[in-house]
């Protein structure tokens, strides 16, 4: 092996020049990060959309005479129509509801409304429901009156979150537009990522890239996509029913659906309210509609999550909460996806290392099967 020659003695001028160059490089890197940082959530969400929607884009491109630009434009226009249409409609309802909630918190007037007298006339359970509702309304009103001074500081964050909703909608639009350009370059970007992975990880580089893509698609379609669809449908039903704060309730359905907790906590009280305030001819179809919406995830998730989601609920919860705190509305969707991908890659890496330690002399193909088992 040829000996390596190192220059041990450097003059003072050379040391100063090297320090200046390194300092200038560090400053440029930091400045570049500062300039790019506001766009990181948008770029990440656009890449997530590209990965999640690439199968329908590929199918549409093939069935339109191999015209990828037309397929990308079609999907982009459809997603933009959904965002600009019902999402914006519900978003305004969310902003109004949060502003009203912040006002009630600031004034100390937050309370559950008293039950309508018509609840007493319900057969069998009407009297019991009326009594429970009345007790909850009275007791909670008294409790909130005592807690009003402590709840007032929450009004500021609630208003700030409501104010960020409009800017978050613009971020969604920008991310969708960028994803439309990424569809055509998707295979080329994946190939470059595989080359980078081959440099960083000499074994199973193909598997890690595929696992990351599969996790993104699973969470984006089976968790985020189903939650958004369920929230939109629930919000439309709540708006048609004239439920107060329909936007806030639809947002609560969205959070619960992402956390895999179901929407019954929100929809069951709403159904009770509908039966208490609406006629039978109106209450029955609305109840059927909301029940179908509440159970829709049981049908859609098995269809979109072929392999299921192995990521623990705590990881998803931290991703949702941390994403909202760090990036607002957009972080609500980006946070759980990023943490889920990180978790799946870490688990695959740990299982691979364990398999290699357990059988260091086994053929690579056998190691791969053992790691995937």
Question: What can you see in these coordinates?
Answer:
By secondary structure, this protein is an all-alpha fold. The chain has one domain (39-372). The chain is built from 11 helices and no strands. Helix 10 packs antiparallel against helix 11. The radius of gyration is 27 Å and the shape is globular. Mean pLDDT is 75; it is low at 362-373.
Summarize the structure in short.
Helices cover 82% and strands 0% of the residues. With 373 residues, the protein is mostly helical.
How many E-type strands? 0
Uncertain parts: 362-373
Number of helices: 11
Domain count, please report it. 1
Mean pLDDT: 75
The global form is: globular
Classify the helix fraction into a percent range. over 70%
* Amount of beta strand: under 5%
Main beta sheet: none
- The class by helix and strand makeup works out as mainly alpha
Overall radius of gyration? 27 Å
What is the rounded distance between the termini? 42 Å
SSE order, as H and E?
Answer: HHHHHHHHHHH
